[in-house]
Every structure is written in structure tokens, then in C-alpha cells.
Amino acid sequence: MLSKRIIACLDVRDGKVVKGVNFEGLRDAGDPAALARRYNGDGIDEIVILDVTATLESRQARANTIAAVAREIFLPLTVGGGIRNEDDAAAAIEAGADKISLNSAALDNPKLITTLASRYGSQAVIVAIDAKAIRLKADTTVRYEVFARSGQTAANRDAVEWAQQATAMGAGEILLTSIDRDGTKVGFDCELTAAVSDAVNIPVIASGGAGTFDHFAEVFTAGHADAALAASIFHFNEKSVSDLKQFLAALAIPVRK
Amino acid sequence: MIALVDYGAGNLTSVRKALAAIGAQVWTPTVAGELGRAHGIIVPGVGHFDSTRRLSEAWRTAIKTMVDDGVPLLGICVGLQWLFEGSEEAPGVPGLGCFAGSCMLLGTRSRPQALKPPSPLKVPHVGWNSLSIPRPARLTSGVDDQTQVYFTHSYAAPVIDDTVAICEYGVPFSAAVERGNVAAVQFHPEKSGDAGLKILVNWFHGVK
User: Deepest in the core among A133, A195, B54, B60, taking most CB within 10 A?
Assistant: First the structure.
């Protein structure tokens, strides 16, 4: 049976892993290669490197960080942050990335999804969507608004519609982050995740809010997620990946042993 | 020396890294004529079956000649699919035909009944899935039944007599095939942790 994936995210700035809350207030969590080595030994299924400031400073994801992490693992490695064009993607892939995660660049230029999918295959192209729940006073329904540039700019798009469009353009996976939940440890936004996951026929990686093992179980069941990504919960040695997997397996959620 | 055939189908960095880790020496031949000095050949591939179109008649002939001479060949992912007769992903592009059958789209859109799953499934099939090992084979030597490996693909090859590992995603498909000196895997051994490296080592042991 296809396992639900547990993915560790390394938010990198200046070659160091950092982690903030609601996309702000970054704190140092250490050396990316050392963390990757620890997660690999602990049974992580994939690693994502996000250069969290790359887009803001218009610089390319650091090739040496990618190479240092790639040396440590024989697992799928995704790189995002600052992938603005085909050259940025090529540089990250040359350095050892298996998949590229596009965010702001895909919003600005959706054709980039198709270009990269044609060149590397859809399986190499992840579209990252950062979404915020918008509740209108007169209305009990929730809309999910997409934000670009590390959550700073409203993209004036609906998350579900954008996920569908990205899929049609050739995305192989959606990395869906709840800005409201990012770093809060109050749980994934299962409503958001299920809404997107049910609307597309490609895997959806849920992100933002992991705090307990129950949160993972919830997002894999109620949230219909195919994979769950977390950062802080693993970085500071709060929880181990192997304990998480044992917990999920006991609930009959399929995980890689 | 292992010839890693680069026909522009995506990224070879991970494959190179994994081969280096198991002590294999690798080069990427630039013309088909160079293949003659290979002790083993790997046809990798991610992406679209159509990209195998770039393996021109010269490459096809060179690879076939080496296979006939007993040189070990390993296909990975689209490389496996290419060793079958073709794929509905690119109907006009022939595979090498080492293995019988054609590759079909996973999920509900598959026309032939054989690969039609009972319920809609997300395609591509991405992630760690388990191998059923129907009989002992070189490639899977020392690999436990139900070992999990990393897949990422939308098309798959049918289960045939040469299938040595079966994976199931809606329907059973060939996760690994082996006949004589020709072997192939649908998953990515270079991204499948220790289990993947073990399978690469098994293949590499057959390379003189």
C-alpha cells in the first residue's frame, strides 16, 4: 500500500536552518546537513529545503546548501525559494535537487510550471501554495486566499482554483501551507487541506501547524493529505520521526517502516 | 565502467551520487560508439516516454548489441518502460522490446481493463510503496518481501513472466523485471534509502 509520507522541511537562511511563527521571527535551528543526517537515520521519507528569504532578496537557493544536504541522504530532495526561472531550477537540480518547488514565480508566470514540467517531468515540479482562511462576517463559509512572497502579498486568487490551475499546467504535487497555522503547533488546517486535496488529482502535501502526533493522524484522515510536512516539531528534538511513524502505524495509517 | 546513458530525460545527479556511494565508476557516453567499452549500462529516466525518442537508431543498436553480448543492463523508471514494447504515453515511440507488453496510464483513464483500478487514484503515483517479491532474483537478493521503495510515475508496465517485484497501486504492475542480463526497476533505487542502495549493489555485483 502507498504510504503517507512524513517530510521534514529545512527553512534555510544564510546556510543555517531557521524557523519562525506565522512566517516571522526566525530562530536558528542549526546546520542543514547535520539535521538531514539525523532525519535520515530517524526514518524521514523526504526532505524539503526552503530558502525562506530567497524570493525577498531575489537570490538563488544556495547551491552549496543543497549539495551538502544531498550528500547526506538517498531520499527525494525538494528545493524551493528563489526559483524564479528555468536557470534557477536548473542550478538547484544540478546541485542535487530531485524536485523544484515554485511559489511566487508560478503565480507571476504560470507558464513556468509547464516549462519545467516539460523539461524535467511533472514529478519534479511542486507548486507551493501559501493560503490564509478568510471569513466574511455575514457569511459562515471560508475562502482560502493565496499569498505570495513569504505570505506578504495577497495574490488575489482562491487556493482551490489555483491548485487546479497549477495541476492543469503540469504540477506533479501541491505543497499547501496554512499561513494561519505555520509554526503555531495547533494542528494542520484540515479543512483547507481536504478542500484542495479533493479538488485535484495529484498528491497534496499538508504544511503548517504540526504540534502533536494526533495532528498528523488528523491531516491524513480528515484532511485527506497524501503527505505531511513539518519543521519545528522535528528540529528542536521535540518529537522523533520514528516515534511518529509508530504512532500512525498503530492507527492503521500506512507509513514507511 | 558503467555507462550512464544521458538522453536529456531529467536529472542524473542522484543516480550518479548513488553509484558513487556503492563504488561504481560511471561515465556518460556522448556518442553511441562509446558504449562498446561499458561493463554495464544504465538507462535512467524521469519524465515523459517521448523523451526516449532521443535514443536514436544508433543508440538502440549499440545497446541491443551490448545486451546480446551479455553486458548487464539496468533500466530505471522511464528506463524500465523503454525496455518494454512501448507506452500509451507516446504511442508512436517504440520501446526496445526486451520485455513483452506495453506501459499504460495508472488511474481511471487507462483503457485496457488490466490496469484499471477500482476507484479513482491520484496520478502520478508518488511515494513509498511496498514490493511483493514473487520469486528469488538477483536484483532482489537479500531484499525482504514488503520492502518499501520510492516511486514517482504515471505510467506502468504490466506484470509479466519476467517480473521479479510487483507493486500495487489500484492494480498490480511490474516494480522490477529481470531476464538474464537485462534488469529494470520502476522505482528510484537512488532515492529509496538503504533498500535502494542494496538493489543497486545487487545489480552492480553482476557487472564484471
Answer: A195
